[in-house]
Amino acid sequence: MDRTSKIRVMPDSLASQVAAGEVVESPSSIVKELIENSIDAGAKNINIIIERGGKFLIKVIDDGSGMSREDAILSIERHATSKIKSKNDLHNISTFGFRGEALPSIASVSNFKLTTSSKNNPVGTELLIKGGKLIAVNECGSKTGTQIEVRALFYNIPARKKFLKSDSAEFSKIERAVIAACLSAPHIGFSLHHGTKCVLNLGQATSYKNRILDVFGSEFSEKLIEFSTDDVDGIKIKGFVSNPDYNFTTRKHQYVFINSRAVKNSSVSISIRDAFKGLIEKGMNPVVILFINVKPNQIDVNIHPSKEEVKFDNSNKVQRLISETIISSISSDLKSNNNSPDELADLSKSKNESDEFVELKQIHDKSVQLIQNNMLDLELSTSQEIEPSLEKEFKVLGLLR
Ligand SMILES: Nc1ncnc2c1ncn2[C@@H]1O[C@H](COP(=O)(O)OP(=O)(O)O)[C@@H](O)[C@H]1O
Ligand SMILES: [Mg+2]
User: Fold this and answer.
1) CATH annotation of 223-396
2) Taking the alpha carbons of 366, 369, 375, 379 in that order, is the dihedral positive or negative?
3) How far is the CA of 145 from the centre of ligand 1 (A)?
């Protein structure tokens, strides 16, 4: 070997630890990755057990397909995945995972135990891994599904361990990740325990609406306006926004999903902000639970290892559809709540123009005006025509002449 060469190929265990810097940023990112694997494996029930904010233990148990002994051993190899086979698949991803990075990354920075059994297998497999090193492969029980235990997170990377926040702060992030998964997959039952506390226990739900009710309760759900659109050039959106007078100081009740994946996307945030402009006080935030469905080949999810960022081929179109749909659903709600201008006028007459009704009418008129302004802004900000499916609705609402 040339003694002057300085470049070395990293051993796999070191490469996994480096990759873990991006995939396994905190206990919540581990929970997210493990839940996604369970969903990809077709689980109907996922149980999550956390101790000390995930620093001491993260355990995820599913009743999905499980793995054979050979697959279990492969699953902890870097870049080993059952989800894509060729470059073409990368443009048509329909699973949460595809990078084959999560399990080896998690296993490289913890004490890791994977127990799994696939259907019709007489025995299951248990793998024990410490800091990325395979310690033992044992036979175990054969209940179909997979259980993963992550203990002593970052025990071998003190610098990362030091950056973990308090148990309760780390658990809050885990809870949000679990709630996001619950919202995007209502057909799956979930439970979440932190120490001795049962934080969530949700049976399988039959609709998004029922899942929201189960997670957040009736007072919250009653404030929501539901909406959905037809397919517009391969883009479909549905979801829930709060009535503008129900709002929060933080964005904690805002969840955006693209093809069921919880994402952060600035153009979507802008469209939400535009739709509510003037309708709620500055600094306050509405509830938004938004599901955007697009053809997998119209987006790129391979932007960051965490897969939380997604790029649209045509973000203007999506942005506009979101704003229009939210504005129209708030407007329809205003109209259907017995307080159209005519009805209010009648009511106010019969009540001798009581202060309450005059005030209500003023609020209504202001809201309609603001909604009209937001529509107009939207018109000016893009040169595209209004979607035909929404045009009729806007005319009915008096938002278009
Ligand atoms: N809970 C699970 N049930 C069944 N198979 C699993 C589970 N978790 C992981 N696997 C298998 O291990 C592989 C590697 O998982 P992972 O490292 O998360 O990569 P990816 O999800 O990107 O494929 C997956 O492709 C899948 O075949
Ligand atoms: Mg995965």
Assistant:
1) 3.30.230.10
2) negative
3) 12
Residues of the chain predicted below pLDDT 50:
344-345, 347-353, 383-384, 396-397, 399-401
Domain with CATH 3.30.230.10 in the chain: 223-396
Contact criterion met (CB below 8 Å) for 204 and 187: yes
- Say what the pLDDT of residue 94 is: 80
Identity of the residue numbered 97: G
Task: Note the ligand closest to the C-alpha atom of 82.
Answer: 1
What is the best residue among 48, 71, 75 to mutate for testing ligand 1's pocket, by most ligand atoms within 8 Å of CB? 75
The DSSP-derived string for 107-171 is HHTSEEEEEEE-TT-SSEEEEEEETTEEEEEEEE---SEEEEEEESTTTT-HHHHHT---HHHHH
DSSP 310-327: -EETTHHHHHHHHHHHHH
Cβ(239)–Cβ(227) below 8 Å: yes
For ligand 1, whether the C-beta of 98 sits within 6 Å is yes
Domain(s) labelled CATH 3.30.565.10 in the chain stretch across 12-209
Name the residue of 35, 37, 301 whose CB sits within 8 Å of the most ligand 1 atoms, as the mutation to test its pocket: 37
How many angstroms separate the CA atoms of 298 and 1, rounded?
Answer: 47
Residue 352's pLDDT is what? 45
Query: Is residue 106 in contact with ligand 1, taking CB distance under 6 Å?
Result: no
Model pLDDT, residue 347: 43
**CATH-assigned architecture of domain 12-209:** 2-Layer Sandwich (3.30)
Sign of the CA dihedral running 232, 287, 328, 324: negative
